[in-house]
Amino acid sequence: MRTLQTSVRASDAIAIGRAFVVRRDSATVEVVCGSEEQEQERFNKALQSSTSQIEKLSEGSDIFAAHLEIVQDEMLRDAVLEYIGSGKGAAEACQAACGDLVAMFEAMDDEYLSARADDIKDIFARIVANLAGGVQNPFEGAKEGDIIVAKELLPSDMALIDLGAIRGFVTALGSSTSHVCIMARNYSLAAVVGLGEAAEQICSGDMVIVDGIEGRVVVNPDDDTMNTYLVRALNLVTLSKEQQAVATQTVEYQGSAVAVVANAGSVEDVVKAIESGADGIGLFRSEFVYLNSTSEPTEQEQYEVYSAAVRACNGKPLTIRTLDIGGDKAVPYLGFEREENPFLGWRAIRVSLDMEQMFCRQLRAILRASAEGDIRIMFPMITTLEELAEAKRAIEKCKADLKTEGVAFNENIKVGVMIETPAAVFIADDLAARCDFFSIGTNDLVQYVMAADRANVKVSHLYNPYSEAVVRAIKMTIDSAEKAGIECSMCGELASDSSATELLLKAGLRKFSVNIGSIAKIKYTISKL
Question: Which residues make Cβ contacts (< 8 Å) with residue 272, sequence separation at least 6?
Fold first, then answer.
C-alpha cells in the first residue's frame, strides 16, 4: 500500500476503482518542412479544422463556447503567423505562441484567471494535433468504474471521457480551479490534482482510493483502509443529498439571515449560480469582458454583458467588480509595461483612475444596466480615501452625462469596496462611512498581510488564512462595517471553505460569496450551526 499526498483540495468526493493511466509523451516540435507560404497554409487549414471541431463541442458546453471565441480571435492567429514569418514551422510556431499566451495567464494573481491558461494549452494542442493528422482519443480503453490518471487533463480531454462511467481523476498537474476540478465538482466525481512526480507511481490496473477532500491517493490499499473508505464514501453520498436539500433555502445563524451568494466570471456562471440556489452574485469579475477581446470592449458591448447578467439574476443582486487588471494581469492591447513588483504595482483601481475614459465607459455601461435590476458597483484594491473619492466622482460624472442624454439608470445604485490590503483594513472605519458595503477579498488580503506570495512554495507555509494576523484583519473589517451599519461580505476562497464557516459567523460575517460548487455545502453548514 502506498499513500500519495497533495495540498490541493480538489473535490468533496471519495472514489474507489481501478487506475486507467494515460501516458502521453511530450509533443515533439517539427523542423521547418516548407516555405513560409506553405507553413501558413498548413496552419490555416489546421486552424479551420480546429474551429469546426470546437463549434460542434460548443453547442452543449460553456467551456467550449469560450474556446470558440479564443480560437476565432485574430490575436491568436496573428501570434502564430508572426512566428512562422520569423522562420519557424507551423507546429513550432504554435508552441511558441502558446507559450507566450500561457505565461501571460499563469502570471495572473487570481486562481480563476490563471487557470484559463489550460484553455490556451488545450486549443493549441488541438491545432497541433490537426497539423499532425487529427485528434486522437487516448481514453478509448477506459472501463466503467475506472479512475483516470494523467499528467494533466484539459477541457478537450474531458469531452472525450464518459463522465457517467468513470469515478474520478488523478493528475500530476493542476489547481483547485482547473477544469478537471470544476468538472469533478459538477459531476460529483472524486479528484486529486497537483501530485507532481508521485503520480507516476500509479500503474494501470492498480486499485486506488481517490480522496478529494484530503488530497490523498491510496494505491493498492489494505483491507482495513479499504473498509474505512467504503464507509466514508457511503456517508458522503448521504451528506450530499442533505446538502442539496437546503441549497435553495434561506439559511439563518442565531436568528439572523445569512446570504450565500456566488462568484461568477460570465453570464453562464450567473445562470448556473442562480439555478444552484445562490441568493445573488457577490462578485462578477468584469475583467473577462476585456480578456476575451482583442481590443477594449465598447460601452455597448459591456452593457450587453452586464444587462444579460442582471436579468439572469431574476431580481437578486448582482455586484460588479470594476476592472481588476494590470501589473500581473496584463492585457496585450492596453500596452502594460513589465513591472518588477506587479503585486505592488499599477493594477485594479489604480489603472481605472489613470485611464479615465476607459473607466467611464465601464461605469456608464454598468449604470445603464442598473435600470434593469439590482446592480451594485464594487471597486478593487482600494488603499486610500482619495481613491474612493475619485472613483465616486467618476460615477457622479457618468450619472450626470447619462441624465443629460436621457438614459435611464438607478440613481441610488450602491457603491462598495473590496478590503484586500492592510491599508484598507486600517482605514476601514473611514471607508465604511463613505460607501454602502464591504467585500473582503481574502486571496489578496492573506498575501499582503503575511507578505507571502501564495504561488511561491518556499513561503507557502506563511500563506495561511487562519493566521492570527489575518483573522484579526478580518474581524476589524467586519466590526467597522457593523459600526457604520453597512453590509460586509467575503468573496475570497476562505468563504467557500466550510471548515472556516463557523469562525466567520462568530466574527460577525453574514454574507458569503462562494464558488458555485460550494453553495449547497456552505448553506448546509450554516443550517447546522
Answer: 516
Catalytic residue among 67, 94, 98, 179: 179
pLDDT score of 279: 97
Distance CA 383, CA 283 (A): 19
Burial of 406 (0-12, 13-18, 19+ CB in 10 A): exposed
Amino acid at site 248 = T
**Cell 439571515 -> residue:** 257
d(CA 170, CA 129): 24
DSSP 326: B
379, 346 contact by CB (below 8 A): no
- Indicate if the pLDDT at residue 332 is higher than 70: no
Q: Which three cell numbers stand for residue 15?
A: 472514489
**3-class SS letters over 201-219:** HCCCCCEEEEECCCCEEEE
360 is catalytic: no
Q: Helices in 406-511 by DSSP H: which ranges?
A: 422-426, 428-432, 442-450, 468-484, 501-506
Selected catalytic residue, list 313, 398, 488, 491: 491
Annotated catalytic residue 179 = yes
For CA atoms 314, 319, 325, 329, the dihedral sign is negative
Residue 93 CA to residue 397 CA, distance in Å, equals 47
Q: What is the pLDDT of residues 307-331, one digit of tens each?
A: 999 999 999 999 999 998 765 556 6
Residue 391 CB coordination number (10 Å)? 21
Cell reading at 366: 454598468
The dihedral over CA atoms of 466, 472, 478, 482, expressed in degrees to the nearest 10, equals 150
Q: Containing H/E element for 268?
A: helix 267-275
Contact 102, 121 (CB under 8 A): yes
Q: What is the pLDDT of residues 220-265, one digit of tens each?
A: 999 999 999 999 988 887 888 888 888 999 999 999 999 999 999 8
